[in-house]
Every structure is written in C-alpha cells, then in structure tokens.
Amino acid sequence: MNIEPATPEDAAEILALQKAAYLSEGELYGDLSIPPLTQTLEELVQSFGRNTILKAVQEGRIVGSVNGRISNGRCLVGRLMVRPDLQGRGLGTLLLAAIEEKFADAVCYQLFTGEKSVANIRLYERLGYRVYERKEVPGSVAVVFMEKKGRAAT
User: N-acetyltransferase domain spans which residues (predicted)?
Assistant: First the structure.
C-alpha cells in the first residue's frame, strides 16, 4: 500500500469512498445529511485548490484518504477515511501520520469529530490528540475539537 498525493482526477473515487466510509457516522447520529455524505463531486474537486489531499492506494484502488491545510501555523486535518472493510487495521493511523509529516512545520494539528464517535476519539487520543473544546451544533450533535502539538511548537 502506498500513500501519495491525490489529484482532482481521483475525486470521483475519493467521493465514493467518502460516502461509504461516512455512512456509519451518519447512521450513528441518525443524520444522513452530514457534509461528507452530501458533498458533491464539484465541491470535492474545488477543495483541491485549498487542501492537500492524500490517498492510500492498494492494488490500484484508493482505500483511504485524508486532507489538510495550514492556517495561521496550524494544520487543519479533515476527512480522514478508510474503506469500511479495512477499518481497524492501522490505515487511519498511517494516513494521519502522513498528513502530519506533510505539514511537519505546523505548530499544532487540529481536527474535529462528533462526540459519539468514540472509536475516532480513541484513535486520536492514542496518537497524541487531546480534546480542547466541545461545541453543541444547533439542530445536530455535539462536536469535539482535538489538538496535538507539532514539532514547531517545541
């Protein structure tokens, strides 16, 4: 398996993966209108202009992805996803490490997830992330914001 930069030409395959990977999150929250499930192909293609998107490729297929960008010295990590049948095998850890390495000069790494997503939170905590804020989203669920210090902070 290789982790490498994705291109806009990968968008359709990443979007299909995203919808499969985030379906369990939508079901967990009883809300299939969460942004990863409603994002359009055009929106994803446009996101390549502001985000670095990495893909994990196995046997010619994209099996995972993550994105990140720098804002005020912080790396904002988003849309970490792994094909459902490959979850729990360390691929998410590899993707997160890859995006952190891509932005090695970041002061910190920040991400968010729903507060009911205990498996995600457990993964992030195991990798050094800590909750720094909890927010109620009107008409939705609570979200936890997590952060990990970067090498530039030391």
Answer: 1-151
